[in-house]
């Protein structure tokens, strides 16, 4: 007689899910490091990585000239049909903007500072940087 509350293999399934999540995070971190190196070569001065606020997270924050740039890094495998640059949803844009507002508040960034939202897309071994990928979306 088996226990109705037991699940043969559930423990292994939970381990596999944790491993996939860990591997996904690890790949994400590796791609963020690649994006950072790419932006540095382009002259961007990175000042913050993985900034967390209550509303969300921003992958990279830096200065491109006088502009404070909030960067979302998106990666897709080379055989993926989805372009990583198209993977930033409206909801994600809103979260990035709210987190950017919080960053500016916390770091006392002057109001007159130019702000920009960029996306770095990594597709296989290709890297593409889209400046001004989306406008600021004000909180409601």
Helix and strand arrangement:
Layout: H1 10-41, E1 45-52, E2 57-64, E3 67-76, H2 90-106, E4 115-123, E5 126-130
Parallel strand pairs: 3-4
Antiparallel strand pairs: 1-2, 2-3, 4-5
Strand content: 25-35%
Which stretches are poorly predicted, pLDDT < 50 over at least 5 residues? 1-6, 13-22
CATH class: Alpha Beta
| Strand segment count | 5
**What is the name of the CATH architecture?**
3-Layer(aba) Sandwich
Backbone shape: globular
Helix content: 25-40%
What is CATH's topology name?
Answer: Trna Endonuclease, Chain: A, domain 1
Q: Quick one: biggest sheet?
A: 5 strands, mixed
Strands ordered across the widest β-sheet: 1-2-3-4-5
Structural class computed from helices and strand pairing: alpha+beta
- Element-by-element helix/strand order: HEEEHEE
Indicate the mean pLDDT: 82
Given the structure, what is the number of helices? 2
- Count of discrete structural domains: 1
Q: What's the end-to-end separation, in Å?
A: 57 Å
Keywords:
Trna Endonuclease, Chain: A, domain 1; 35% helix; 140 residues; 5 strands; globular; 2 helices
Notes on the protein architecture:
The chain is an alpha+beta fold. The protein has one domain (10-130): 3-Layer(aba) Sandwich (Trna Endonuclease, Chain: A, domain 1). It contains two helices and five strands; from the N terminus they run H-E-E-E-H-E-E. The chain has helices at residues 10-41, 90-106; strands spanning 45-52, 57-64, 67-76, 115-123, 126-130. It has a five-stranded mixed sheet with strand order 1-2-3-4-5, sandwiched between helices. Strand 1 (45-52) and strand 2 form a beta hairpin. The model is unreliable at 1-6 and 13-22 (pLDDT under 50).
């Amino acid at each position: 007689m088996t226990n109705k509350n037991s699940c043969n293999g559930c423990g292994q399934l939970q381990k596999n899910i944790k491993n996939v999540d860990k591997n996904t995070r690890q790949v994400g971190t590796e791609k963020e490091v690649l994006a950072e190196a790419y932006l540095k070569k382009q002259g961007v001065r990175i000042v913050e990585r993985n900034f967390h606020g209550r509303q969300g997270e921003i992958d990279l924050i830096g200065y491109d000239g006088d502009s404070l740039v909030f960067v979302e890094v998106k990666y897709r495998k080379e055989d993926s049909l989805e372009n990583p640059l198209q993977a930033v949803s409206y909801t994600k844009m809103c979260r990035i903007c709210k987190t950017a507002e919080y960053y500016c508040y916390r770091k006392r960034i002057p109001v007159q500072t130019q702000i920009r939202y960029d996306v770095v897309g990594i597709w296989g071994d290709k890297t593409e940087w889209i400046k001004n990928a989306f406008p600021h979306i004000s909180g409601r």
